[in-house]
């Protein structure tokens, strides 16, 4: 392998490992996914999602982009119905740093350590986005994808975060049967 291509491979692995979204999926092992070509949204389910209308629009736009890229088209008589739902929880992180004047157990003395305790508290919101694909004729769920990650309140970044969530979830559709 050439040194340049090895370097490129290392960069790809590094940046993909820094992903902030963890994804999972599950599906009906008895379903053949190849006939599905069209989709529509399951409006009664999407109307119940308890997030802002702006965030719903972001999610649906990102789903449209991913489904179009996969060769699907929207239809009034779809093969698949798409539903979404969300969950979120607040995470509180407490970090404590205890320092002494440099005396203590062990070897040596450290004159650069200051005395006292330092505590920092930070909060973040972890969100989960579920995307359900339902066979429109049978009215049965055939696939579910789940993305879990840290949400942002920064409106400049919301489109980017939503696109990352949706892109990584739908990257697992259609499932690869083993």
How would you describe this structure to a colleague?
This protein has 178 residues and is α/β, with parallel strands linked by helices. The protein has helices at residues 3-17, 43-47, 53-69, 155-170, and strands at residues 21-27, 38-41, 73-74, 80-99, 116-135, 140-150. It contains 4 helices and 6 strands.
Q: Uncertain spans, ≥5 residues at pLDDT below 50? A: 1-18
Oligomer: single chain
Rg, rounded, reads 23 Å
Strand content: 35-45%
Keyword list:
alpha/beta; elongated; single chain; six-stranded mixed beta sheet
Question: What's the quick description here?
Answer:
The protein has 178 residues and is α/β, with parallel strands linked by helices.
Task: Summarize the topology.
Blueprint: H1 3-17, E1 21-27, E2 38-41, H2 43-47, H3 53-69, E3 73-74, E4 80-99, E5 116-135, E6 140-150, H4 155-170
Parallel strand pairs: 2-3, 2-4
Antiparallel strand pairs: 1-6, 4-5, 5-6
């Amino acid at each position: 392998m050439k040194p340049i291509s090895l370097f490129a491979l290392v960069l790809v692995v590094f940046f993909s490992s820094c992903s902030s979204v963890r994804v999972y999926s599950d599906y009906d092992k008895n379903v053949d996914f190849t006939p599905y070509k069209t989709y529509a949204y399951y409006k009664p389910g999407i109307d119940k999602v308890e997030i802002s209308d702006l965030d719903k629009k972001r999610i649906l736009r990102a789903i449209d982009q991913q489904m179009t890229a996969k060769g699907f088209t929207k239809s009034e008589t779809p093969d698949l119905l798409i539903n979404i739902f969300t969950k979120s929880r607040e995470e509180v992180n407490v970090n404590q740093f205890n320092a002494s004047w440099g005396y203590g157990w062990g070897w040596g003395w450290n004159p650069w350590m200051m005395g006292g305790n330092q505590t920092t508290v930070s909060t973040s919101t972890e969100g989960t986005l579920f995307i359900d694909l339902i066979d429109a004729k049978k009215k049965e769920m055939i696939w579910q994808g789940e993305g879990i990650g840290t949400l942002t309140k920064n409106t400049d970044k919301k489109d980017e975060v939503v696109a990352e969530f949706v892109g990584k979830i739908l990257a697992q559709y259609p499932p690869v049967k083993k």
